[in-house]
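Let us practice reading a record.
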Amino acid sequence: MEYFDLYDKEGKQLNKTMQRGTSNSPGEYHRVVHIWIINSKNEYLIQQRNKASDRYPYQWAPTAGAVKTGETPIQAAVRETKEEIGLSLRVNELRLLESIYVDNPQANFIIDLFIVKKDIDLKSLVLEKNEVKDIKLATKKVIMKMLKNKQFWDFDDLDPKMDYFRKLEKRYI
């Protein structure tokens, strides 16, 4: 069973944990990481989720996952990228764009939004088939079309005020 450290609204660790699948209390947040890999052609590496239990089963999204107890967000980003798509990243390749606080009835969390500038040969990647069904490169325009057609995970469904994709682009481009 997985456990996650809990943090307050300012990102300070609370010396408390929560178990995956449980809810946390108001004012308590666990961390998740989103890793956006963009190549020199301004294409993002996205993956199709392969779990019926996901909030949005079989939809496309960036590489992402929860920060486990004792991990830092950057350690989790490196681990999740290796586990899910077989890509080894170095810590210095990841740039934290923003930490986004989400108050959600199921569980409050902090999204640590990372960007990596890197050209990747998709054929060199090894997918963790329980987590990832497929991968591809897509431009922002393609991702926005997928979002409109409900093929891409709409993070703003979690909190419309988040304006997730605008934050991603504003901070990077």
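A brief commentary: The helical segments are 73-85, 140-148, 164-172.
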